[in-house]
Give the backbone structure.
Amino acid sequence: MISAPKNSILRRPLKAPSQKNNENMDTEHERNQQRLKAKQQRYQEQEEYRRKCLYATPGEKKNIWAEKQQEQQDHLAMKAQSKVAEIAFDKELAQHYDKQQCFCKEMERDQESLKRVYLKSIMDENKAMVAEKKAREQAEKENERRREREAISFWDRAPRSFR
C-alpha cells in the first residue's frame, strides 16, 4: 500500500496579491501625509509659542498676557454657564422626580381603594354565605326536630313532643 504524498508548505501554489492592498496603499499614504503635516504644524505652533515666551518684545508679551486673560475669562464664563445649566438640570430632575412620586402615590392610593372595595365585597360574600349556611343549618335542625316530634317512640308508644 502506497500512501499519497503529504502536502508540504514548500510546494503550495502561489496566489497573486490582491488588488485591495493596492487600492488601500494610496489612501493609507494620504492619511500618513496628513498626520505628518498636522504634527509638523503643532510643532511649529509650539516653537512659536516658546519663542514668544522666551524672547518676546514687550508688545508680544502684552499680547500673550491679554490672550491668557481672555482664555481665563472665557473659561470662567463657560464654567458659570455650565453651573447654571447644571442647576437647571437638577431643578428639572427634581420636578420630574416629584411628579413621578405624586403619580406613584396616587397609583398606590387607587390600588389601595380598589383593594378595600374588593376585600369588602369578599367579606360581604362571606357574610352572606355564613348567613345562608346558618339558615340552612337552622332549617335542618327544625326539620329534624319536626321529624323527631312526629316520630313515634317504640318504647313508650307516645310521641316525643310530649316528653
Remarks:
- The radius of gyration is 50 Å.
- The first helix runs from residue 19 to 55.
- The chain has a mean pLDDT of 88.
- The chain has two helices and no strands.
